[in-house]
Specification:
The chain is an alpha/beta fold. The protein contains 10 helices and 10 strands. The protein has one domain: Arginase, Chain A (3-Layer(aba) Sandwich). Helices cover 40% and strands 15% of the residues. β9, α9 and β10 form a beta-alpha-beta unit. The N and C termini lie close together (6 Å).
Length: 311
């Protein structure tokens, strides 16, 4: 079975008119996953993460300051790209809470895998800094929960968002039980993700792609770099930062993928999870800013997860 976690607060987070990380992104995803073919998804509302759960990966003072900065009305700018509205704090807590609930469900055997349709995204959020549309690093919060509560000893996070997940990398680099593996456009925002960045425990695997790269280069990166690293690591839980902004229609990058590439990547990651993790996968929505491309790509991703989950 595959479980879909989301919450209406994640739609209500609104960075303002003209911002690419807009509420319509999640509406498009949920509309796509409302099609009859996805009727087999079990749908659950995410509870909010607690401060204690978030501070496993984020500085406690930073968490408190960020939540206190959520505006009562209007907008509050965190940086040039990252903006909060009155619902943003609740949305970020529910996004992180979805990751925690998904980990619980998968580790308890309630589902083979889970997809978290949430926003704001999280993979740029660093231990003491919100940035790049991201407030809390939800995938890292989920990984830390898996380690602390379920005793998972080897956790792999695979990130195929077109932007490198600098925050997740920063949180992984000093943790010997985590592996972070990423394909992304390089050089590009946020400027991290070179192959030389390896981590304190040689647990960072970056496979950068040049602007204009397409299916062949993306699939080669998976086959030659990402999958061998995962097989060496043998994760007990596989988590995915599922950004769909490497699609050729996306306005914020220049990688030329289609929804078929995301389906293929999901299939090979399902294979890794079956070999090493009992099939356990927790996937979280990250980027993707063309609404049609985002909807089609998310549907392709979840369709593969459902097939793997026996739906």
């Amino acid at each position: 079975m595959t479980i879909l976690f989301s919450h209406p607060y994640c739609v209500q987070h609104d960075p303002g008119a003209g911002h690419p990380e807009r509420p319509d992104r999640l509406k498009a995803v949920l509309d796509a996953l409302g099609a009859p073919e996805f009727a087999g998804l079990e749908r659950r509302l995410a509870l909010g993460a607690t401060a204690a759960q978030i501070t496993r990966v984020h500085d406690a003072g930073h968490v408190l300051a960020l939540l206190e900065a959520v505006p009562k009305s209007g907008l509050a700018r965190v940086d040039a790209d990252t903006v909060m509205s009155p619902a943003s704090g609740d949305a970020a807590l529910r996004a992180a809470g979805a990751a925690i609930a998904a980990v619980d469900a998968v580790m308890k055997g309630e589902a083979a895998n889970a997809f978290c349709a949430v926003r704001p995204p999280g993979h740029h959020a660093e231990p003491d800094r919100a940035m790049g549309f991201c407030l809390f690093n939800s995938v890292a919060v989920g990984a830390a929960h898996a380690e602390a509560v379920h005793g998972v000893e080897r956790i792999a996070i695979v990130d195929f968002d077109v932007h490198h997940g600098n925050g997740t990398q920063a949180m992984t680099a000093s943790r010997p039980n985590w592996l972070y593996a990423s394909t992304h456009q390089f050089p590009h925002y946020p400027g991290t993700g070179s192959v030389q960045e390896r981590g304190e425990y040689n647990n960072l695997v970056n496979a950068p792609l040049k602007a204009g790269a397409g299916s062949a280069e993306f699939r080669a990166a998976f086959e030659e770099v990402i999958i061998p690293a995962l097989d060496r690591f043998r994760p007990e839980l596989l988590m995915i930062s599922a950004g769909f902004d490497a699609h050729y229609r996306d306005p914020l990058a220049q990688i030329e993928l289609t929804e078929d590439d995301f389906a293929w990547a999901t299939e090979v990651l399902v294979g890794v999870a079956r070999r090493h993790a009992g099939g356990r996968i927790v996937s979280l929505l990250e980027g993707g800013y063309d609404l049609s491309a985002l909807a089609f790509s998310t549907a392709a991703h979840v369709r593969v997860l459902m097939a793997a989950g026996g739906v």
